[in-house]
Specification:
The protein has a domain of 89 residues. By secondary structure, it is an all-alpha fold. 67% of the residues lie in helices and 0% in strands. It is built from 5 helices and no strands. The chain is elongated and about 80 Å long.
Length: 140
């Protein structure tokens, strides 16, 4: 009797594992909208750089336009952490970063902008550690 019950439970466990394996990984958390993301960034920068209200508005507007444009550049890429951008999209992203930084530089003092560049590096999403995927092109 005990043998039959253990075989039955083992079979149920195996069936459950097979069903769960067919479902695939869960999609993960939904990335924030450009509005939410720009507010998060401007709040962090306001705290770190002691921005005035006018500066905060300009920084938030610059980041909102940046995140909206980056959303269009990324297209239908998977949610964070996304794979590295292809070279054509990387150039578009770099130009968007330059435009964003130019707008922010106009809004901040020289000392605030110097500190902004340091803080901005800490706000970038971390890149996965380890070797690149097998299908990723070499960076040469």
């Amino acid at each position: 009797m005990k043998t039959k019950i253990s075989i039955l439970l083992s079979g149920l466990l195996l069936a459950t594992c097979m069903v769960k394996a067919q479902q695939g990984p869960s999609p993960g958390p939904k990335p924030p909208s450009p509005d939410e993301h720009s507010k998060q960034v401007s709040t962090k920068l306001e705290k770190d750089l002691t921005l005035t209200a006018a500066q905060k508005m300009k920084v938030e507007a610059a980041y909102k336009s940046f995140f909206t444009a980056m959303e269009k550049v990324r297209g239908k890429m998977p949610p964070p952490p996304p794979p590295p951008l292809p070279p054509g999209k990387k150039k578009s992203a770099d130009s968007l970063v330059a435009i964003r930084d130019a707008v922010i530089q106009k809004a901040l003092t020289h000392a605030q902008f110097s500190k902004y560049k340091e803080v901005e590096k800490t706000m970038r999403p971390p890149r996965p550690q380890g070797p690149p995927p097998a299908n990723a092109p070499d960076k040469q």
